[in-house]
Design goal:
Helix 2 links the parallel strand 5 and strand 6. This protein is of the alpha/beta class. Helix 7 packs parallel to helix 9 and helix 9 runs parallel beside helix 10. Alpha-L-arabinofuranose binds next to loops.
Length: 493
């Protein structure tokens, strides 16, 4: 039997709600046929957005939504997405994707979606194919007070008199790759150039600028960026990095399939996913080494399991669409627990992506729209947002084949303890102890558990994987089923 101690007196930090953030790019089926069906669609919609998805997304209290990319952002001209006559363009992804960009969803529509689901917006600015002046103009268009400037009046003519609330602006995307193939030093200089003008807007109208960070464990990027920014640049409020979990089978050299839950696929996936903890510590410690930890708090604005294409409902029609099973649910819980446990270093994280793409929460096509196991984990963990993270310690927890991932937080007199059993095959007995404070031993738990690890939801069986509410007695050990996720709410007496 293992023991888990929730250390009431060992506080980490308040968990920024933005750690429970999302990402929606103009790619594959995320926007078109995903969240957006169009105002004239027979599919029930709220001003063009899929009604069912709006309702379910709102339920999990989404904290922040990143848009319009991803790589797409670096070819995006914001002017294409406003006003009546919208041009059709090649999309960044057109070489791999069959869709052209209709620009039906632009700034006004996206902000309408954010407002209807109650999430903050995080815009990714194009810095490789526009000028700093054009970047500044998009910001002015969005943020200038009602009636104040010609751009504010243009916004009003397009249906929005009051400024939009956009608290976060990313300066570029993956600038080591699709975003200009830059070196970290070159990017840092570009950052200085763009942020000087962007900051000129945010200084008066509010907003945080986020620097484009590394690919996974590329610490050289973080060194180069932090070094240049520490010498001169203070107009920075965070640093992104991206971390995807896609693992190749050492024998075939091909990525493991979405629904491959063989022992090798399972544990290779868990180990890769767990590696994000190391990346968090090291990127942050580099920022600390340059005295930049307050300016370069981490924004993990793309994360998730990236399996091969083709396992989703459209069988490859939607680019990067994949099925999502209990394997993805356990990886979700593992990431969110790690983020809570490092909430002193992380200001935001955005799972990639919201619908029909990579590690998604929704799969939607025509009239169908279902939630994935990942969605349920976000639902089960949502009360961590804004809570005080407490340290948890699990005894005898080194062996990945019977490992428990854990985190805990305190809010409104209640602890939320979230657990994932990373074992593919073994149930684990766990006693939970909260020393130093008296708690109700009877507690409510939400459990996501299936007999088969590759269990997943489909249009035909949308509720094959859904959480069950049970009551647990904390005076006795709990049984955490193999490959399961559990969230326990414990009241202080
Ligand atoms: O999420 C899909 C793509 O992955 C994004 O556009 C890009 O930023 C990353 O490489």
């Amino acid at each position: 039997m293992k023991k888990l101690h929730v250390l009431y007196h060992d506080r980490i930090s308040t968990i920024a709600p933005e750690i429970y953030g999302h990402f929606s790019e103009h790619i594959g089926g995320v926007i078109y046929d995903g969240i957006w069906v169009g105002k004239d669609s027979p599919i029930p919609n709220v001003r063009g957005f899929r009604k069912d998805l709006v309702k379910k997304f709102k339920r999990i209290k989404p904290a922040v939504l990143r848009w319009p990319g991803g790589c797409f952002a670096e070819t995006y001209n914001w002017r294409d997405g406003i006003g009546k006559d919208r041009p059709t363009r090649l999309n960044w992804w057109t070489p791999y994707d069959h869709r052209y960009e209709s620009n039906e969803v632009g700034t006004h529509e996206f902000m309408d979606f954010c407002e209807m689901v109650g999430t903050k917006a995080y815009f990714a600015m194009n810095i490789t194919s526009i000028t700093p002046m054009q970047a500044r103009e998009w910001m002015e268009y969005c943020l200038a007070p009602k009636g104040s400037t010609t751009l504010a009046l243009e916004r009003e003519r397009n249906g929005r008199a009051e400024p939009f609330d956009i608290p976060y602006w990313g300066v570029g995307n993956e600038n080591w790759g699709g975003g200009g193939n830059m070196t970290p030093e070159f990017y840092a200089l570009e950052y200085r150039r763009f942020s000087t003008l962007m900051r000129n807007i945010t200084r008066d109208l509010g907003g945080t600028l986020i620097a484009g960070g590394a690919d996974g464990k590329d610490y050289n990027w973080t060194h180069g960026l932090a070094k240049v920014l520490s010498t001169s640049e203070k107009h920075v409020g965070g640093m992104s990095f991206h971390y995807y979990t896609g693992v190749k089978d050492p024998l075939t050299k091909k990525k493991y399939e979405a629904l491959d839950c063989s022992e090798s696929a399972w544990y290779a996936t868990m180990e890769k996913a767990e590696g994000i903890e190391d990346a968090i510590k090291r990127h942050y410690s580099i920022a600390q080494a340059y005295g930049m930890e307050d300016k370069l708090k981490l924004v993990i604005d793309e994360w998730g399991c990236w399996h091969p294409d083709g396992s989703g409902p459209t069988k490859g029609y939607n680019l990067f669409e994949q099925q999502s099973s209990m394997k993805d649910a356990v990886v979700t819980a593992l990431h969110l627990n790690i983020f809570n446990n490092h909430s002193d270093k992380i200001m935001m994280a955005n799972v990639a992506q919201l619908c029909n793409n990579i590690h998604c929460l929704f799969l939607a096509n025509k009239e169908n729209c279902i939630t994935t196991p990942t969605y349920h984990v976000f639902d089960m963990f949502k009360e961590h947002q804004g809570a005080l993270a407490l340290k948890t310690v699990a005894e005898e927890n080194d062996d990945i084949t019977e490992k428990i991932s854990s985190s805990a937080s305190l809010k409104d007199g209640k602890f939320l303890i979230t657990l994932a059993n990373l074992s593919l095959e073994k149930d684990v007995e766990l006693s939970v102890d909260v020393p130093g404070i008296s708690v109700d031993e009877e507690a409510e738990a939400s459990v996501l558990s299936t007999e088969k690890a590759d269990a997943h939801n489909t249009f035909a069986e949308p509720e094959a994987v859904t959480p069950q509410v049970v009551f647990v007695d904390l005076s006795k050990p709990l049984t955490l089923k193999k490959h399961s996720v559990t969230a326990i709410t414990v009241k202080i007496k």
